[in-house]
Predict the structure.
Amino acid sequence: MGTDRDHADLMRYISTTDARCPGCDYNLGGLLADRCPECGRQLTVRGLVKHRHRSPIFRATGFGLLVSGVLLCLTCYGALLGLVYLAFFIDWSSSPLRCASMGPGARRTWLVLAWTPAALIAIVLARILLMVFI
Ligand SMILES: [Zn+2]
């Protein structure tokens, strides 16, 4: 059992994010205790943040920032933006707490932002290949 302050931090974290139990992935929304009602696991903010940072959407966003950054760096006009994306990638991988406390809307926005340059470059490459081979 943690201190009152730990408990208050935990309650704030659960009420502002769509936190899930690290043990059984149970949705903890509205929970008032510091134990998972499904599997009985003791919950801590640290444990929840770690679990959340491992989620597929966070990995997909980090990977998208990296892929877009590298691809942009290989283009003549996008190199500077590519460096910005690589800086975002480093920031994304090194600040799990901030990323984990984002709401669902912000997470979706980041995912789209991360993959947009990579998708555009893929479309341009596909068009060039079509022109060459057809
Ligand atoms: Zn659980």
Q: What stands out?
A: Residues 14 and 90 are 27 Å apart (CA to CA). The helical segments are 4-16, 45-53, 56-74, 79-94, 96-100, 104-133. Residues 21, 23-24, 26, 36, 38-39, 41 surround zinc ion (CB under 6 Å).
